[in-house]
Amino acid sequence: MSKNSHLGHQARKRFGQNFLHDQAIISQIVDAINPEPGENLVEIGPGLGALTEPVIERAGDISVVELDRDLAHRLRHHPFLAKHLTIYEQDALKFDFTSICKADKPLKIFGNLPYNISTPLIFHLLSFRDAVKDMHFMLQKEVVERMAAGPNSKTYGRLSIMTQYQCQVIPVMEIGPEAFQPPPKVDSAIVRLVPHKEIANPVKKLSALNQVCLTAFNQRRKTIRNSFKKLIDVDAIESLGIDASLRPENISLDQYIALANYLVDHQSNDQ
After folding, report:
1. Same domain for 74 and 98?
2. 11-49 burial string, b = 16+ CB within 10 Å, else e?
3. Which alpha helices (DSSP H) does 49-134 contain, by range?
4. Which of 251, 257, 247 is nearest to 226 (CA)?
5. Boundary residue ending a domain (149, 170, 195)
6. Cross-strand bridge partners of residue 19
7. What is the DSSP string of 209-253?
8. pLDDT of residue 17
């Protein structure tokens, strides 16, 4: 089979499909994933197998999660790939990744994620972080920039904080539209996420961290004093050593953790 062959499949807008076809780029991505025999590899959205094929050549058998019925069917009947695949024809956003976890083999998850669902999918995957060794994703470059951003930058926000709290975020490489068919209207990038084995400064409830981030960044032009009016009063914010006149993008991850923990300790109703 020609590795550039699109198997006559038309990319579907509703699935956000853009297929990789640049062999040099594909090799670099597979090098970044570094698949090895015996690892518990899971690909999300294998599409036409651009990454699937070279990963199988290096690692042997893998699992794939593919929502598109036609693509799942093609993979099941593929002359080379089929015997190496366990195919889950399901929506990755709803898939229980612990169902394919083995005690001694943490998951290595990778994929060219549909850009229209990338953020909710990252949040879903992070909920399985205890079962994951690492994750490598192709995303819109802007999403990777937001994940890796630090305080005092325009791209810093809820995605930065929630991802960095749970993982080491390592941007690997940038990829232009010409590597895809059809070419997307945006630049792409590969990110490596390595879940922290231990979280040095743990939050009492992850939902509380999410809540303070949502409240803050929902109106990112406002000062913390104003955006937290209904949640945490100014004296409490200042008592945590946080300047209430700052904007959400000026508050560090540790300060958001402090705000979240304050919320857990002082909320009468259980969130």
Report:
1. yes
2. eeeebbbbbbbbeebbeebbeebebeeebbbbbbbbbbb
3. 52-59, 69-76, 118-126
4. 247
5. 195
6. 181
7. HHHHHHHHHHTTTS-HHHHTTTTS-HHHHHHTT--TTS-GGGS-H
8. 53
CA–CA separation, 175 vs 189, rounded Å? 5
Find the domain containing 223 and state its range: 206-266
**Domain boundary, last residue among 160, 195, 230:** 195
Domain count, the chain: 2
| 136 and 23, same domain (yes or no) | yes
The model's pTM: 0.90
* Residue 7 in domain: no
Enter the tokens of residue 54. 């070279």
For residues 35 and 30, give the distance between their C-alpha atoms in angstroms, rounded to a whole number. 7
| CA 194/CA 148 separation, integer angstroms | 13
In angstroms, the CA 29 to CA 43 distance is 13
Terminal C-alpha separation, the chain = 54
Mean pLDDT, range 133-145, rounded to an integer: 96
58 with 155, same domain: the answer is: yes
Domain assignment of residue 36, yes or no: yes
Lowest mean pLDDT among 6-15, 99-108, 154-163, 172-181: 6-15
Six-digit token string for 173: 């490489």
Q: What is the pLDDT of residues 154-181, one digit of tens each?
A: 999 999 999 999 999 999 999 998 888 8
